[in-house]
Amino acid sequence: MTDENATIADQPSHDQPSHDHSAHDHTSHGYITAKDDYLKRLRRIEGQSRGLQRMVEEEKYCIDILTQVSAMTKALQAVAMGLLEDHISHCVVDAAMAGGPEAEAKIKEATDAIARLVRS
User: Fold this and answer.
1) Helices (H), 58-99
2) Is the distance from CB of 81 to CB of 58 less than 8 angstroms?
3) Number of helices followed by number of strands (H, E) in the chain
4) pLDDT tens per residue across span 62-112
5) What is the pTM of this model?
């Protein structure tokens, strides 16, 4: 693993909810303006995962593997936090301004996502 991969957690950055979002307008998600950045970071994380597999296959020192697991975990957390921030500042704010049951649903959805992140 390179130092570049170990530092992606420092970059700004979804948890898969259990319900269907097919009725939502997918062109207006808050992260859309940073989609390429998210994809770049996720591809880097995918590379870290392959690197971890290689480290295990090559029977590298366990502490070195754990160090890379930690870096990958932090990178995923950074992506999740960025997506959450985008969701709150775009989707939740828009729903709150509109008011009504959709606002309550978006706030509950965000709260549930935060709870899942805290538990992970």
Assistant:
1) 62-87, 93-98
2) no
3) 5, 0
4) 999 999 999 999 999 999 999 999 999 999 999 999 999 999 999 999 999
5) 0.70
